[in-house]
Amino acid sequence: MRDRVWIFAGLALFVAALTSPAWYALANAKSSSQPPKLQMPANQKECVAPAGTMRAAHMKMLIQWREDVVRHGDRRFVAFNGKVYEKSLTGTCLGCHNKQQFCDRCHAYSGVSTPSCWNCHSDPQTVARSITRSTP
Amino acid sequence: MKITRKDFLRLSGLSLLAAGCKPAVRSANQPASGTGAAPTQLTRWGMVIDLRKCREKDGCNACVHACNAAHNVPQIANRAHEVKWLWTEPYATVFPSAQTGYAPQTVTETMVPLLCNHCADPPCTRVCPTQATWKRDDGIVMMDWHRCIGCRYCVAACPYGSRSFNFEDPRPSIASINPDFPTRTKGVVEKCNFCEERLTRGLKPACVDACPQHVFAFGNLADPDSEPRQLLRDRFAVQREPELGTGPSVFYLV
Questions:
Q1: I need a surface site. Which of A77, B80, B222, B253 has the fewest CB within 10 A?
Q2: What's this model's pTM, rounded to 2 decimal places?
Q3: Is the predicted ipTM greater than 0.85, yes or no?
Q4: Chain mean position to CA A125
């Protein structure tokens, strides 16, 4: 047991090294256990599916919508409650949600990289802003 | 349980008979699919372009501007990188085999609007390795930009030069982005979609609505009473390079 000091010192160093990213993030206020503050749509109370489903499977739904619209010309989405929506990211989703205050915030919080949707599809609100800015 | 030789043989025989009958039963259950005459096409979108009316207002380009604005078509100065959906070329370039040498200058020197021909038998769809471009049941040669890998086989296959490749990011070259339609990204091919997104809303293509001369007649070629069919009955029309066997859906009244 003569090496006890060394063993415990080494263990402490190991634990410190292992948890260092968490300490670093806490010290720099880059991370918190608080969920992100998402701006909810003002004009709607209900999404095209229950919130839990949307949270877990919105990406699958968007891929499905994409296939339906582009490949089959099917733009009609009948929601769980019988309401009919147009299958459109920029029309239906962004008609209510704010991309920066909703989509981007949660993606940033969850560490999910920005999806390639925005390489081509435009956020109507950003586009509207850039037009008003460019016109004197 | 013990099985006798007789029972075993009887059981095997019945099983073989059942397996043999399966294809017959299956075909009897689905009499409509596949067999019989080919289904008649109910819709084939097509366009008739009246060049006589177009000549009256040569160089107006309202159709081109409407198309570019509706579909976020970038305006790239470098001709090697240019992207075109609807554009114009001189008559001699469009109809190289229809030169008599004696046609009036008003005909040969005016510009002719060009777009994807939405061929009946499109060569571009045949070469696409990812089925990013395909022919829809209504005759529109559609593109799925999500699936395009930018191999440019279709660009090489199209005899009409209707397809453009995005050699650079198109967004900086779009004056004002229409958020209702996606832009494209570097590395994909694009072309006219016959305003598929407007047709689903019951509208006519943007160029048709924008033309002050009503040069474009758009409608269903499968319907004998449609506007393009009536025009094609009354006047002599030409297609671009019909000898290639592509069967263009865009017709020109010269």
A1: B80
A2: 0.79
A3: no
A4: 17
